[in-house]
Amino acid sequence: MDRVPVKKLYRDCMFFAKFFGKQHGNEKVYMGQVRQQFKANMHEADKDKIKEQKEAAIRLLQDNCRSFRGL
């Protein structure tokens, strides 16, 4: 999980925020939440904290993908 670039993770999160937001009628809210979280952590320098945050984002994306597929 450590090898996922932050920019790719951000784009993936924004894609799913837009996708799920359109389904639920609150696209701007979801995208705003993703944007806010990335902005809040953009100056983080601790590699362990960065790794934790990336792993949490990846788990969230994986969980959303599973629920979307109905697995």
From TrEMBL:
<protein>
    <submittedName>
        <fullName>Uncharacterized protein</fullName>
    </submittedName>
</protein>
